[in-house]
Amino acid sequence: MSPALLRIENLKKHFPVRLGAFGEKAATVYALDDASFDILEGETLSLVGESGCGKSTTGFAILNLHRPTAGRVIYKGENIAVFDEARMRPIRRDLQIVFQDPYSTLNPRMTIGEAVGEPILFHKLCSKAELPGRIERLLADVGLPGRFAQRYPHELSGGQRQRVALARALACEPKFIVCDEAISALDVSIQAQIINLLLDLQEKYGLTYLFIAHDLAVVRHISDRVGVMYLGRLAELGTREQVFADPLHPYTKALMSAVPEADPAGERTRQRQILEGDVPSPLDPPSGCRFHTRCPIAMEKCRSSVPEWRDTGAGHFVACHAVP
Amino acid sequence: MSSAPLLAVADDPPVSLWRDAWGRLIRNRLAVAGLVMVLVLAFAAAFGPMLTPYDFLSQNLDARNAGPSLVHLFGTDDLGRDVFSRVLYGTRTAFVVAIVVTALAVTIGVTLGATAGFFGGLFDRIIMWFTDMTMSVPNLLLVVVINASLKAPLSQWMETQYLATLNPFFRETIWIDFLLVFGSMALIAWPPYARLVRAQVLSIRSRPYITAARALGLTNRIILTRYVVPNAIGPLIVSVSAGLGTAMVLESAFSFLGVGVNPPTPSWGNMISDGLRVWQHYPHLLAVPAIVLGLATVAFSFLGDGLNDALNPRGSK
Amino acid sequence: MSETLLEVKDLTIEIATRRGPATVVDGIDLHVGKGETLGIVGESGCGKSLTMLSLLKLLPNKIRVAGGSAMFGGRDLLTLNNKELRAIRGGRIGFVFQDPMTSLNPVMRIGDQLAEPLIHHRAMSKAAARQRAGELLKLVGIPGAEQRLDAYPHELSGGMRQRVMIAIGLACDPDLLIADEPTTALDVTIQAQIVDLVKGLRQRLGMSVVWITHDLALIAGLADRICVLYAGTVVEDAPVDQLFAEPAHPYTRGLLASIPRMGAPDSARLSSIGGTPPEPGRRPAGCPFAPRCPLAEDVCRTTVPALAPLRGEATPHRVACHVANRVMEAA
């Protein structure tokens, strides 16, 4: 197994919010609680779960774009979770992010060339004379012709913009990229192009990905390991085979069962396990195991005590009282 | 590597959002009409007084209250002064007041609004409370109070200074007029700019491209100058264009009421006020300044609407 | 084949642009049988939503129907006046939109929003409409239906709001329910609930359903027949099993191949369709898919292919492609 590039320990992110017409009621959104896992060098680790489960918050907290409430993010032996913006700056080169909405991640007033060239100049990665050649190479890396450097974002399609966002992230020569729902807003045929591009780039530059998504079919396709989150907590984490072929947590099982398959005959006969009810509010998460309100096998213990996050063997982690 | 994407836009020249907006603006007939009228008025304000054959103050008591003729295009007033020259000079007054007042108001508004939006928290609440307070005071009342309370002591002070120094600067009471007009009007004109800029900054601050810039490690200064400001400026341009028109109307209104620019300096407002007294006998004395003021207002409003449609294409219609 | 409920012929829709009108829907033919569920599949901008909105004159500004007909119950919907249309909207045809948050009136109680079409179309009394509203909420599986009648939309979760939307669509026992990406904004476990609900209701009420989606996997288990749209044209129309077993149009095949499958063996790369769909107003001559098609020949770039039965047989499987027949025989 490769060594860990990032080690996340008991990471927490709580957002204070004010409710009521006059903001008189203080409350806390428990967006992420007690997440511990390693991100291994060169792997694609995916985080899946439904909206509000905290998967994007995890990505933002790891990159210190949202300062973690508690916990540690160890990179090169240092806890970057406590770094201020100035100390983060050199590290940001190594740790990059690509966002979901291709229409708003690029500054509409800057050309593609300016957008891609900006981080290169800022981090002084090459001279001004070398810059155009470098931009062209980066655009070529993401499958765009060099003349796109003069274009503005609004002239590009969603897929093309997402390629630019990737080129921009690559400009810093990063080791690690968080793909925050990076393909979710794209059409099916374009999604496949970008997934292939991500895999190509990973091979070429030895990148490590934290792939945040809700589309399990895509996750199954590109991940080495998968983490499943529910309402701010990790429910299960393991290799792709462990999680998809042998899911342990009842939530993982329900999630798998809810994913439709492109197979009409199979779909008609398939027995789905449909979860009752809705995801509770992260403002007031249930006590004990947060899934117990919807869990088909919840026990008395699940209502009162938080299940321990433990390795069931061979790196297959789960947090559930019912798993032996 | 995946196959090269097809480029639907490949052969057109690149279009920046500014150029795109300009294209939309000049296709809008009303906006072009507004723009042309504004340019004509601006030209008149800049060069008009130099081109007219008459001084706006020179009186010709033999030709009082004359109707429009080839000698006096718009006729003369009760002191035999050429109305055309006076209207041109009034245009200059209107432009000077509008530009200076708007510049002052924008400076105050943008500074307060941007800092409130960027830093948020208590700072934001205090600034916005102050803004709302200012907005809630009736405009006219504020201007009248300022003028009434400050004008006499200021004139007094100027006179003492003149007597003490004999510096001719202090004899020109017109500076007091301008100072009071500029100051009091800027004081009532800045809150809308502050609100607008604060809202812009707040909304831009939460855009993903700002987070993306932070993730690249860029400094706050770069993010402000290259990301926040260029994206916030569009609505501000629209607002300034409309604000210039509003300032001209305000100036005229105050001059009309006698709390703005004082005679003999010509202003559309005090010309209207003079003309109103005799309009039954000499309607041109009221009509000419009133029509010019109306044209200016319409011009700025067309231009502002056009700019709005051009800079915010999605919000139009 | 069962009796036809809706038959759209040669529907053309234009959008007004700076350079003049641009065609966004180009001569679409489609039909829905009584009790049938039709899936309309396509990527964003292919015209799938506009096609359905145009039937009820719900098109946004600057977009208009330029030609074609839509026969529903013996009348052409496109020629009806507003008064006649109002009787059909929400009466005989129910509509469910993508975003339940913005499609419900935020300042009106759920019960009143449900009762409105009943009072309007069925001339029910207020009390009767309220009682029926309660039944409808029960029908779409909302727990504590009676109490929820007095709730406002923001007090409900996304899944619950979509159930309310469906209840409104069903209020007047429509013959046809049009659902425009009703689960796209929802999480996958909630999506499964909604799909399950519509399947059950369809059986119980015997209505026809048109389900618009971009997700082939989702529609696989739901539709009887599928129309695949590309750039404002129907490229393939087939019963669901046939479409998945032997997709004939290169676009359909590309779409199916680009879906990562849970059960499939590991493959390093997905097969993908290069390029992007044409913008309206920049449609190529000939087949709109030709510039992206791996099989395109000269004829594809000059002549628009007609939607015709596959292999020239009298089959419900129709495809608009010059080369499909040959390719299918070779395969």
From TrEMBL, chain A:
Keyword DNA damage included in the entry's annotation: no
GO molecular function: ATP binding; ATP hydrolysis activity
Pfam families tied to this protein: ABC_tran (PF00005), oligo_HPY (PF08352)
Keyword Signal included in the entry's annotation: no
Alphabetized InterPro entries for the sequence: AAA+_ATPase, ABC_transp_ATP-bind, ABC_transporter-like_ATP-bd, ABC_transporter-like_CS, Oligopep_ABC_C, P-loop_NTPase
Domain ABC transporter: 6-256
Membrane topology: Peripheral membrane protein
CDD domains from the UniProt entry: ABC_NikE_OppD_transporters (cd03257)
NCBIfam families in the record: oligo_HPY (TIGR01727)
Stated name of the protein: ATP-binding cassette domain-containing protein
UniProtKB/TrEMBL annotation, chain B:
One Pfam family of this chain: BPD_transp_1
Highest taxon above the source species: Bacteria
Subcellular localization: Cell membrane
Gene Ontology CC terms, in alphabetical order: plasma membrane
Database matches in CDD domains: TM_PBP2
The entry's keywords: Cell membrane, Membrane, Peptide transport, Protein transport, Transmembrane, Transmembrane helix, Transport
GO biological process, one term: protein transport
InterPro entries the UniProt entry points to: BP-dependent_transpt_permease, MetI-like, MetI-like_sf, OppC_N
Main location: membrane
Domain ABC transmembrane type-1 residues, every copy: 91-304
Membrane topology (UniProt): Multi-pass membrane protein
Membrane-spanning parts: 30-51, 94-123, 135-154, 174-193, 236-261, 281-304
Family: Belongs to the binding-protein-dependent transport system permease family.
Stated name of the protein: ABC transporter permease
From TrEMBL, chain C:
GO molecular function, one term: ATP binding
Domain ABC transporter: 6-256
Membrane-topology descriptor: Peripheral membrane protein
Taxonomic source organism: Devosia nanyangense
Alphabetized NCBIfam families for the sequence: oligo_HPY
Compartments (UniProt record): Cell inner membrane
GO terms (BP aspect): peptide transport; transmembrane transport
Pfam families in UniProt: ABC_tran, oligo_HPY
CDD domains: ABC_NikE_OppD_transporters
Protein name listed in UniProt: ABC transporter ATP-binding protein
Similarity comment text for this entry: Belongs to the ABC transporter superfamily.
SMART domains: AAA
GO cellular component entries: plasma membrane
Keyword vocabulary terms for this entry: ATP-binding, Cell membrane, Membrane, Nucleotide-binding, Transport
Chief site of localization: membrane
